[in-house]
Amino acid sequence: MLSPSLVFLSLLLCLIRLYLIIPTPTVDRQRRRKNTDTCSLAVFLGSGGHTSEILTLVSAVNFSRYTPRKYIVSEGDHLSVQKAAALELLRFNNASKIDVSNNEQYTILTIPRARQVHQSLLSTLPSAVLSLVACLYHVVLVPMFFPKGNKYGFADALLLNGPGTCFVLCIAVYVNKFLGLPAPKIIYVESFARVQSLSLSGRLLRPFVDRFIVQWPQLLQDRSRGEYHNWLV
Amino acid sequence: MRAFLTVGSTKFDALVQTALSRAVLDSLNRKGYTELVIQCGGSDFELASSISQDEVFSVLRNGIDITLWRFKPSLNDEYERADIVISHAGSGTILDVLRLGKPLIVVPNPTLLHNHQEELAEALSTLGHLQSSSVSDLARAIETFDSTALVSFPLFDGSRFSRILDEEMGFK
């Protein structure tokens, strides 16, 4: 039988572990990579304006360096898949024929939606759980059991800009961190549309992501975590 | 000259309805516009029942040639051909239009919940990149709009994000 003190002790240990893995400003940022190294990149496409904005960011990065790429979409979001495929095709066609490292190195992962637009918070619970299970499968389980077929684990970097489902992805990444498994660096870029107030995803993820970036300086007036580098899109 | 009005991927009943009003059409007329193209999406308004999903509907009203349709896969050609764009305040539309260097009047949709469209419209209007208006103020906004006074919108600079990602991932 579990004694209360045992429960308390395990809770305490969990909290200490969580405290240890939350990013801090002074953390030794990263291992250095050589210019010839590659990094795998995962990008969550949150549909509509979220997808357009984050694909604009992806279009800015060096595709031979950030390869292979994974696009994560919510179930039924065909438009985001089309937009990602269009970007990949464009880059593929523009890449020099000698540069074989850029040969459409991308995959699409589909996960159930955590929350429908205008869905009430209570009815969100079952769909959020389903979504979490799918994220845990892709982020924790697959890389754990097929490390060879998936030599980078889930990804080295994960780009997020909202909405809902990206929070669930972040939880899955934290399971990896908690267990000491390889976990991607999470970069969150708040939408260009957010001028005076952060989005719900932004507010939730702010303490937990490795980089929290906003596109309007007003959003950092509370002097809490975050950075502003002018407009990124 | 041609004006193009877009409501984006959803609907904006009041904006389409007011665009067809005498006041707005007269303003366009006085500013020298002869054509008005309206992407009405799923909006409900006086002519909505006459426009089926893939159909183009034309009507001449107050000396303006009006063309209405619901959706197209890409609006970029329409932006290119327009002399002025009137739009809902969605950030995607705003970025697309301003990057093409087209004069833009935005009308935030007040019926949207948690409306942050208005924040963006106001911020960009303060910086002089566009004109922000409202459904009831549209006719006046068109008439007093001076596109030569707009501040040109900066080009997309991909190096900013690329630098952040490289830095985070340990590339020098």
The number of helical elements of chain A comes to 6
Number of domains of chain B: 1
Figure out the total of helices of chain B. Answer: 7
What spatial form of chain A do the alpha-carbon principal axes imply? Answer: globular
CATH level-3 fold name of chain B: Rossmann fold
Order of helices and strands of chain B: EHHEEEHEHEHEHH
- Major β-sheet annotation of chain A: 7 strands, parallel
Uncertain segments of chain A = none
- In angstroms, what is the radius of gyration of chain B? 17 Å
Q: How many β-strand runs of chain A? A: 7
Which structural class do you get from the secondary structure elements of chain B?
alpha/beta
According to CATH, the homologous superfamily of chain B is Glycogen Phosphorylase B
- Domain unit count of chain A: 1
Mean pLDDT level of chain A: 87
Order of helices and strands of chain A: HEHEHEHEHEHEE
Profile the largest sheet of chain B.
7 strands, mixed
Topology-level CATH name of chain A: Rossmann fold
Beta content of chain B comes to 15-25%
